[in-house]
Design brief:
Distance between the termini: 48 Å
Radius of gyration: 22 Å
CATH superfamily of one domain: P-loop containing nucleotide triphosphate hydrolases
Helix content: 25-40%
CATH class of one domain: Alpha Beta
CATH architecture of one domain: 3-Layer(aba) Sandwich
Structural class: alpha/beta
Order of helices and strands: HHEEEHEEHEHHHEHEHEEHHH
CATH topology of one domain: Rossmann fold
Number of strands: 10
Length: about 290
């Protein structure tokens, strides 16, 4: 264990701020949220309040519990301990039938987009509507698709299939689908992963646009600090299942703790760097295809 890890419990700020608790402007709250997979603690007594109409970005190293936390907010996972609230109503203990109605208030942008390859862009966007409502006016449904695609700059792509779209276009179609039910909250899981900087900035601009024009509450899980700084009203950093930093972009940029600085600047810590630079024996064995012939 290195010196940073040894002092972690005493040095890291476990702030768990709840800025909307007294102002009654919370849309989502989690209280003492703990999640174990077998005996491994992934989330450790998280307390968090999400303010309505704001963009909250969750950062942290791989495996720290970011996506697990995101899935608890929509109860795709249920806590081992603790509680989850939406609009001041507890939801983690609801049955699936009741959760279906709650989930119409959420949109979810999955990391890979998760479009149905066999469905056109139009049918992908209509899919969540058809799951919750009986569509009788298909002309109105097509108008809705047109409006949602216009929001992400892709009106005219209704009859395309996912295989004919670029990675950035697939993400934007998936986002149009995520807003099909006019949600109050959108959950973004790594929205810019796999995109070049320009296409990533398109997604950032759409996140800002949806917040600005639709007053949507956004919760964004990302490793992309450029994106985080651009879209966030608030940035939360998770480490070892705990909140270790919580504030606006300037606060995170200037956070004094080395774990935060290592992550936001993409730096390997000294102990890991020394390990990587150690001299060792490199195997000289080289195998050719003929070595495997009988």
């Amino acid at each position: 264990m290195n010196s940073v890890e040894t002092n972690e419990k005493t040095q890291i700020e476990n702030e768990n701020k709840q800025p909307c608790e007294t102002g009654n402007n919370c849309i989502i709250e989690v209280k003492n949220l703990t999640k174990l997979f077998q005996k491994k603690v992934v989330l450790d007594k998280i307390n968090l309040s999400i303010e309505k109409g704001k963009t909250t970005v969750i950062i942290g190293p791989s495996g720290c519990g970011k996506t697990v936390l995101l899935k608890h907010l929509i109860v795709l996972l249920r806590p081992s301990e603790g509680e989850v609230y939406f609009n001041h109503k507890r939801i983690d203990n609801l049955k699936e039938k009741s959760l279906n109605k709650i989930r119409t208030h959420y949109g979810f942008l999955f990391q890979g987009g998760a479009l149905f390859d066999s469905l056109s862009v139009r049918d992908n966007i209509i899919f969540p509507i058809s799951q919750h409502y009986k569509i009788s006016d298909w002309k109105q449904a097509d108008e809705l698709v047109k409006n949602k695609l216009a929001m992400v700059g892709l009106d005219g792509y209704q009859n395309y299939y996912p295989a004919n779209l670029s990675g950035g276009q697939r993400k934007r179609v998936a986002l149009a689908r995520a807003i099909a039910l006019n949600p109050e909250v959108i959950l973004y899981d790594e929205p810019t992963t796999g995109l070049d900087p320009i296409r990533s900035d398109v997604i950032n601009e759409i996140i800002l646009k949806l917040q600005r024009e639709l007053n949507i509450t956004s919760i964004v899980v990302t490793h992309d600090m450029t994106s985080a700084y651009k879209v966030a009203d608030r940035i939360i950093m998770l480490h070892n299942g705990k909140i270790v930093a919580d504030g606006n972009a300037d606060y995170i940029r200037n956070h004094p703790h080395p774990i935060v600085q290592q992550f936001i600047n993409g730096q390997v810590d000294d102990d890991d760097l020394a390990l990587l630079r150690m001299k060792g024996t490199i195997s000289q064995a080289q195998f050719l295809p003929r070595d495997f012939e009988q």
